[in-house]
Amino acid sequence: NAGVTQTPKFQVLKTGQSMTLQCAQDMNHEYMSWYRQDPGMGLRLIHYSVGAGITDQGEVPNGYNVSRSTTEDFPLRLLSAAPSQTSVYFCASSSQGDTQYFGPGTRLTVL
Amino acid sequence: AQTVTQSQPEMSVQEAETVTLSCTYDTSESDYYLFWYKQPPSRQMILVIRQEAYKQQNATENRFSVNFQKAAKSFSLKISDSQLGDAAMYFCAYRSPGPSGTYKYIFGTGTRLKVLA
């Protein structure tokens, strides 16, 4: 049982480039979410999904897109990366809003 | 809007001693969940303990326990017999019910715990 997996672990982008952070879970959880973690600011919710085909914005959604075509996968897209998006990104999943299980995180640097 | 406040950016404790990390939150909801997560240097977020607001009894997990004061909107974490492996960043989190069966988690800014040998 792999739990929540994220790829890549590290990524460096240039301003304006696009990329997709991958997140997958094998626990059949309906709830998935993306957070960013910045020094001194804790974790802030970017987008979340309560099931396949259903997504909604969190606290800091600007500059990010998501989709949920399957229960297992919840990719996060950066369409045009900016230095302000330099951060550590976490994906999490849970069942019925219970305890969230987190992936190992992706450290993204935008130059 | 709901908020979670951790007023102690950093705490230190001597090995084998007890330490308490503070967390307060602001909400008008009556039904919610509270969590403490640990983040060691590996960056992995690990659940330490959770508390349902409707339960009056304080949650306990081995050396970790909480003091949940619903009226005061306080949710502190007590670590007994501190060990070197407890050194980490600790985050308090609140789960609020949202529209149409959704919910959102709100995290505090974290408390860095140092354990001194």
Defining key terms:
heterodimer; A: 111 residues; mainly beta; seven-stranded mixed beta sheet; 11 strands; 50% strand; globular; B: 117 residues; six-stranded mixed beta sheet; 54% strand
The percentage of residues in β strands of chain B lies in: over 45%
Helix content percent band of chain A: under 10%
Report the strand count of chain B. 12
Q: What is the chain-wise order of helices and strands of chain A?
A: EEEEEEEEEEE
Please outline the helices and strands:
The complex is a heterodimer of chains A (111) and B (117).
Chain A: E1 4-7, E2 10-13, E3 19-25, E4 31-37, E5 43-51, E6 54-57, E7 64-66, E8 76-78, E9 87-94, E10 101-102, E11 106-110
Parallel strand pairs in A: 2-11
Antiparallel strand pairs in A: 1-3, 3-8, 4-5, 4-9, 5-6, 7-8, 9-10, 9-11
Chain B: E1 3-5, E2 10-14, E3 19-21, E4 24-26, E5 33-39, E6 46-52, E7 60-61, E8 64-69, E9 74-79, E10 88-97, E11 103-107, E12 111-116
Report what the structure shows:
The complex is a heterodimer of chains A (111) and B (117). Chain A is mainly beta. Chain A has strands at 4-7, 10-13, 19-25, 31-37, 43-51, 54-57, 64-66, 76-78, 87-94, 101-102, 106-110. In chain A, strands 2, 4, 5, 6, 9, 10 and 11 form a seven-stranded mixed β-sheet that branches. A four-stranded antiparallel β-sheet of chain A has the order 1-3-8-7, with no helix packed on it. Chain A starts with a strand and ends with a strand. In chain A, 35% of the residues are buried. The model of chain A has no long low-confidence stretch (mean pLDDT 93). With 117 residues, chain B is mainly β. Chain B is built from no helices and twelve strands. Chains A and B meet through strand 4, strand 5, strand 9 and strand 10 of A and strand 5, strand 10 and strand 11 of B.
Give a concise summary:
With 111 residues, chain A is mostly beta strands. Helix content of chain A is 0%, strand content 50%. The radius of gyration of chain B is 14 Å and the shape is globular.
